[in-house]
Write the structure tokens for this entry.
Amino acid sequence: MPKNEGVLIRKDNAAALGEVAREFGGIPKSEVGERVERGNAPRKPDHNLISVYNNSAVVLVPSNIVQIYKTGSVQDRSPIMTRELGNVAWHASTPNGVNEGTYAVMLTQATIEGIGKALVAGVVKVRLDDTNEGLFANPQYNNLTSMATEPVGMFKVLYVDTAGDSDTWGFIQLAVPMDEEFDAEITGNTSLGGNQWTYSFKQIEKLTADYGNWTDVSGGWIGAAALNRIEDINAATGVQGNGVDAANLDPAGTGSDTFFIKECPTGTPVRMKRIRFADGTSEFWFSYSNGVDGGCS
């Protein structure tokens, strides 16, 4: 089975579940049955299983989603020495909603300031909010118990117990977070003044080669307020993000020879990126170098 393709698993399809277990690993034994050891061969260590130090304010239990990091920095992914317990562990805390750092799923209980075991890569069973029926699962702000499915996100969803249910279970491919980027088509714009706009968009995908042939993604993202990186420094005066000085758009200052910074045209395909913030909110950004248009009279 190609590693880049998802697998749809039905509850009564044990063969498919076994295939995923062999391909990705990481399903707790309680989900796939006891492992049969061959002879007296030593069992290989599971490098996807790590020790975590419970730095949250609650007891962590199996299937809890945690963010792991070095003290004081979510972005620092180095393990630390928990000297008072004589063990090497990562600090584990409640997800803060930022898609940086590393996430893990608890496989054992960890008392407050205690040590437990968590999975950082592999296929694992988690609770899901599948309201959006998305193809990816994302940790939720200040939520240890479940992830939310969305059209784009961090971890592939391989199976959902009850599609569309806001409180269900499923299997995800837990691994290095996937970049939340996708192709989108600009569908409209609203002027903010100062040569800046917000843009509506829809998610699209490319199915065949050459110009054109973009197709809407069923159940994909539809947004109303994406922002353009190139417009970030734009203003009514001064040098704009596309390198043009606004003073040169009407060099005579008469208003008769006038040019304008133009918005990204409707119908333009762009590469969209979702950016998350610590409070659980997010924005969508893309890059388009604005054109200049106008006329002389």
